UniProtKB/TrEMBL annotation, chains A, B, C, D, E, F:
Pfam families: AXE1
GO MF annotation list: cephalosporin-C deacetylase activity
Residues covered by the Acetyl xylan esterase domain: 1-318
Name of this protein: Cephalosporin-C deacetylase
Organism field: Agromyces ramosus
SUPFAM superfamilies for this protein: alpha/beta-Hydrolases (SSF53474)
E.C. number: 3.1.1.41
InterPro entries reported for this sequence: AB_hydrolase_fold (IPR029058), AXE1_dom (IPR008391), CE7 (IPR039069)
Keywords, ordered alphabetically: Hydrolase
Keyword Iron: no
Domain of life: Bacteria
Amino acid sequence: MPRFDAPAAEVREYRPEVAEPADFDAFWRSTLAESRALAAAPRLTRVESPLTSVEVYDVEFSGFAGDPVRGWFMVPVGTDGPLPTIVEFIGYGGGRGLPHERLPWVSSGYAYFLMDTRGQGSAWGTGGGTPDPHGTGPSFPGFMTRGIEHHDGYYYRRVFTDAALAIDALRSLDRVDADRVAVCGGSQGGGIAIAAAGLSKGLVGVMPDVPFLCNFERAVGMTDRDPYFEIVRYLSVHRDAAERVFETLSYFDGVNFAKRAVAPAFFSVAMMDPVCPPSTVYAARNHWGASADIVEYAFNEHEGGAGVHWPQQAAWLAERLVPQAA
Amino acid sequence: MPRFDAPAAEVREYRPEVAEPADFDAFWRSTLAESRALAAAPRLTRVESPLTSVEVYDVEFSGFAGDPVRGWFMVPVGTDGPLPTIVEFIGYGGGRGLPHERLPWVSSGYAYFLMDTRGQGSAWGTGGGTPDPHGTGPSFPGFMTRGIEHHDGYYYRRVFTDAALAIDALRSLDRVDADRVAVCGGSQGGGIAIAAAGLSKGLVGVMPDVPFLCNFERAVGMTDRDPYFEIVRYLSVHRDAAERVFETLSYFDGVNFAKRAVAPAFFSVAMMDPVCPPSTVYAARNHWGASADIVEYAFNEHEGGAGVHWPQQAAWLAERLVPQAA
Amino acid sequence: MPRFDAPAAEVREYRPEVAEPADFDAFWRSTLAESRALAAAPRLTRVESPLTSVEVYDVEFSGFAGDPVRGWFMVPVGTDGPLPTIVEFIGYGGGRGLPHERLPWVSSGYAYFLMDTRGQGSAWGTGGGTPDPHGTGPSFPGFMTRGIEHHDGYYYRRVFTDAALAIDALRSLDRVDADRVAVCGGSQGGGIAIAAAGLSKGLVGVMPDVPFLCNFERAVGMTDRDPYFEIVRYLSVHRDAAERVFETLSYFDGVNFAKRAVAPAFFSVAMMDPVCPPSTVYAARNHWGASADIVEYAFNEHEGGAGVHWPQQAAWLAERLVPQAA
Amino acid sequence: MPRFDAPAAEVREYRPEVAEPADFDAFWRSTLAESRALAAAPRLTRVESPLTSVEVYDVEFSGFAGDPVRGWFMVPVGTDGPLPTIVEFIGYGGGRGLPHERLPWVSSGYAYFLMDTRGQGSAWGTGGGTPDPHGTGPSFPGFMTRGIEHHDGYYYRRVFTDAALAIDALRSLDRVDADRVAVCGGSQGGGIAIAAAGLSKGLVGVMPDVPFLCNFERAVGMTDRDPYFEIVRYLSVHRDAAERVFETLSYFDGVNFAKRAVAPAFFSVAMMDPVCPPSTVYAARNHWGASADIVEYAFNEHEGGAGVHWPQQAAWLAERLVPQAA
Amino acid sequence: MPRFDAPAAEVREYRPEVAEPADFDAFWRSTLAESRALAAAPRLTRVESPLTSVEVYDVEFSGFAGDPVRGWFMVPVGTDGPLPTIVEFIGYGGGRGLPHERLPWVSSGYAYFLMDTRGQGSAWGTGGGTPDPHGTGPSFPGFMTRGIEHHDGYYYRRVFTDAALAIDALRSLDRVDADRVAVCGGSQGGGIAIAAAGLSKGLVGVMPDVPFLCNFERAVGMTDRDPYFEIVRYLSVHRDAAERVFETLSYFDGVNFAKRAVAPAFFSVAMMDPVCPPSTVYAARNHWGASADIVEYAFNEHEGGAGVHWPQQAAWLAERLVPQAA
Amino acid sequence: MPRFDAPAAEVREYRPEVAEPADFDAFWRSTLAESRALAAAPRLTRVESPLTSVEVYDVEFSGFAGDPVRGWFMVPVGTDGPLPTIVEFIGYGGGRGLPHERLPWVSSGYAYFLMDTRGQGSAWGTGGGTPDPHGTGPSFPGFMTRGIEHHDGYYYRRVFTDAALAIDALRSLDRVDADRVAVCGGSQGGGIAIAAAGLSKGLVGVMPDVPFLCNFERAVGMTDRDPYFEIVRYLSVHRDAAERVFETLSYFDGVNFAKRAVAPAFFSVAMMDPVCPPSTVYAARNHWGASADIVEYAFNEHEGGAGVHWPQQAAWLAERLVPQAA
């Protein structure tokens, strides 16, 4: 697909007004409080695998409404004590798959946690293991419009809560250095990381790649690629729902979380990305509440930096973890 | 798409062995019994519309697990007493929409009921009004793989139960002649009609058009069109699930319901249909437990007979409703 | 397809200069006069159908050059005397099909006429019954470029004349209230309705949905969807024909008919419509010679409002038909 | 597109039974007789062009029903007297275009005539100049279904008659050696050449490339590429028309003309051709009434041999034109 | 594809700043000098063909680095002495094919030479006969990115040198009037013609049609059609290469050759061309160093004027060749 | 894409006759001997990376004709002495990318080498670093047809030689246990692994996934997906080249290498794979010269087992490496 967003110079400065509900903070405060009240301690089960340099644990922690959520937790063999820790969230449709598919961080001295996305994990990759035990109103195939008629029942309320509680759960582990937790993810995973950065305090870094779930008013209708287009398709059937739908989405817009972020961020953006248009990524980055670096991939679509980006993340994060001279 | 199924002569004779679980009847008996035990009387609300020749009612009846399910009930103005009644089920992704979109039967002297499909109604048309308040395991976008790992939690367990209970509910209405109820539907609606014919007794006719949900072992992988292809996509991620998935599907295969049908049937099939391949339609028709007429549309894809078919249905059904001379 | 036209605010104000031939009125005056001189009285034949609440008539009336044109005329059973009457025109490629496919208006107390489109009726639906007995110069497959090198031989000269003479013919029927005739149609049918509104006097309302055939200078080349694109394809072969072709089209541009309309209008427009771009719809609406309401469907493509729109039309028209207090 | 027809060995032997109407010969005899009775002498107009080695004439001759049909006639500069002559027919949708586009034969010592296809010439290339002054019943966009409900009004009745009368007209010219006329053409042009070979006597050779219009019963529905697929689309709307349509087509099937051919033939066929499937080409070749050579292009789609084939045609024909030793 | 470039009025005036390396002239001077030093005299071999009005020669001349390059040379039978001569370059992926495919110029009194494009000639048409005996670094499939990391090894350095040396070689032939050589070509052939016009002196005319290889900074990323998109794909993998790649391309940009051209030009441009966007064509034309006429094809994509354009070229060139009155 | 190959039962037994040149062994013997004679010792350069559990080396070894070929060599930190070693080859179009993208084997106690594919590495992923310094005849874009007219110059002669010499080079390293080297790869990488298994002795295991480059006579034309389709495209232009091309390919057919393999194999195959059709994979597996296990992925396309397959490979290989009890 050719370049289609505004010229690069405009995109870089794009910082839109985004609808923000008056009770945004109250909504999330009570949402988290309710689920935290239902949370049990995470359960870790050691998993055998061919990997000899990594210890692998199957984790089950309490997410939204106390629902069990799965993930992989890995630590390097031959280390002990609390480690700086990475929490990663997954792209749309994917599941946590298998541990050997996600080795770079744990091979670099970090504890690493990969959170399953409830209900997802059947569209690509090697599967997910977390159901979403909540029903839904009429929805377009996919996850974007489940419960979209009201913020209380919207699917991402559950997912973002899972993310915040994953961080809680990890911090309770003795192999995790609670003060040195960073979050990351690509696409949907980047959107969840942004939400986590708005909901969780004390993160050491936030690394969203080509993030999804930002600036819905612009994104919905600007591209005909899923998953944003799922919302267009829903609205094309529910022709009177636009106001309600965008009100719901305002509780979940990455821009509103970005404003509340206090940890430094390291974004990536792909300037020809038809799935997560670059201006919508800049919308979140330019509203970020703390320092926010960004790497542009000028000729990439949604694959963005792919493997080229991780070493840059590793370098950026390493610098944040070094004790600063007084 | 060109012709792709077996030659027409073979297709017409196709009558495959289809896996049937030993507890098929027990499963459905207990499923229906449990939900019937939870059913309340249907609630009808008169709806204003521009239509002057039709009375329209918004219906809410108790479906699976007592869940409220919606539908439109219409009777011709100027009639009274019990009428022969049509129950129609809807194609995949659609909802009940608006009453004026479905006028032929009620304009021909019938009472008419259109059942919403829970959770659906957001992919085309003018919307649905029935949520599906049950969660799901990891699933591919769409409805085909929700709960597909076990027959107890499979989505179509709920939908088929809704269909059987819709017939129960209608028969309780004074404008419905309980002995003269026929069911129909196209595509998914045809598949539901077949299931209803296997689950409900005393129907006067069953009219499935280009029905879906028949002969899964052949259909899954034979075509790359959704919704059958959703199952392929699920299995392509959950590479070890095929046995479990096909076991689940065996409880929902139209062929197994067809064997149990006792009401006469009037099928249609499109010989170039890439969505519901013609041989899978003949699989159900050739296993039908009673007389089963069929109209072939030789050069059509999934649109089948479209508007050309309804007059033939109307004629076929009229003949079934005429009191037979002794 | 994503949004592609100008921003909504611009689209709504779009009111272009459109080429208008000096002899536009003379051309149409003589065209209609010549065909009216050849017109015979319409012939109505009662048709049997399963419908019990509707009387159906197969109509043949005299269109352009006295050519026989077909249509369905329906009146509600149990009414008599002149009724307010709807005339509907059909979308590109379709034919009049079967009567039971078009029941809402006649189920709401109106007499209803559906005009076949000459030569069309073989691309979708259930068929048409009206030949176009006039040959054509070299043309691109389809109807858009038949005779496009001169306005005298252009295909739509015949179709628009058919439309005007359909209204004449209907007004001669005793079940039609000649003072309360409204026209409607979607896509091509909307374009024909606009032309009819420019050519026929005394209409009570005009209801074009996502109309085609408006503002050719903008539409041709703005979209690559047929049927506008048929003209691009023709011009890509006949590289010297652009001036002649656009001169021809200026006699048939909906904008030029809109300027001449005297009846109130009720438009619909789909803001993501790649077939009939929204600005070209607003071009006609913003030039309308009388009051012109419009409903926007913000997230729809060419399906526009579909079934959601008819109740709004019915309400709008009902208001126009109520005798006004003095 | 991958190989899709039967295995090559089967394709080469394929010689199907094809429906042949009892009055096939009578129909064509009377058709030609009627049009010949209306024929005027061809008119040639010398055309200026940059070409210095070729004399170019714009020809108008009398085709079906005396309708004027155009073509280009070219002879090499510096020759005189009667020359062996090639008549070429054009592929679907194209027109005669411009003389400099067709130089090989005339640059090789032949007189050359290119016949325009009535009504066509607007889909690709540089245009056609021959209208089709006959109207049509409801038809699918394109030419395949114009008048297809009866053989008297079918479009190709006119085209094939044009072809036969083109040969008549040419033979009347003093630069044409009437005993040494050969016909050729690709795709539709090949189909017309086959028809001409069945209708005209005394041809010295027939060279159809990847011919269209052969073995309709197999071709219609075997491929989803136009133009065969136009017939499928027509039948998908006119669901009751198949018998009539195939009866019509039996008067125009290349196989029935092939049986009647008495001139030697030189075919080409592309074994991966999705437009004119190779078995349908062999159907005509294997029924040919005289010797019929064929060149197979094993890895080509509808482009067939393209420029590689002409030298082979030239060599084949040259051999046919050499006076045989006694 | 719909119109997508800037509005026509802007496109016509578009005259961008284009990066030009300081050593552009030095680079090309030394490149040509080195290859000229290695050049042997061209070898012509008379080829038999069915053509009787044309003498055909298979030519091998020394291109870049003395590599043998092939071409067809044709002169009209019956002429002698030096003739005005056309040199044509070929579109992307094609080869010189067969002589009878390119007859118009030689049938109009010109000597004609068609240069093969090294390594190409296997993507369409009837083949090429010239290898490219130089290896390449990692490249995207195709020719656009072979050696693109440095101008010394870039593929088009070899091709453009071939073009300049083709002109040298031709001028050494006694049938070629060295003062009346013109160059032409479409798409890539047009781009090569422009380069030749910048590298060779004394041409009588330059006729680029819908030329490729102009204004890379705009073209790369503006369209998603190959071959420009090959560069995007390369850059999407080699994410750090953009600066190097565009530096390389600046040595090969048609705009930089256009500035240096001294022969009059006759361009064509297609205003809906998604392969060679019209603004990039105007970029070269508006920078042309001499008079530069242009013909616009308003409704064409990359096919441009096709056969309609050649007569205009022939007329334009004829005028340039007429001796001017003193 | 739906299932398209023969029925599974047939596919599993498929063991075709495949053309084998008489001098197959001689050709490869001399090819390897010549290149081995030019080989220098491999050069390893330690590379810094964020990885703390892996030592990474950039390797340059001598491949075909002594050409330098690159790769990554990795060993687990904290090990010493010779390790069992995996050599992996890469899928079509990809390059070696970055070390952290390939961690599973080295995280499981193996030394690991990833060989770059000369000339490739620009179509997906994060790039390659090995040029192919050999020119080519006319070729279709891509690598499949470079030099395909003769086996001496065919591209894969160089690649397969690189693979054999990579194994030589690795065995010379002190961290590699020369008796415990296994090869693997997916798609093209699987095809190279098969070739390596036919050319190198003493391998402990061969693990080809959905391998490409097997049974060309069947594959070429059976699918329209690249890269096999590149050969079809080449043959569609070079219409006389089929015999030469298939003779060339017979020197490179995986089936002929499979016959010569002496190490045990562990294949995977995807039963809906349109890129490497399953029967062509079974062709190699069923001709394998030693034991050959295979895992079928019934509902996968070319992604095959993806991450699900590696643990099975690891288990299979571990069993092969365990010292067997006497």
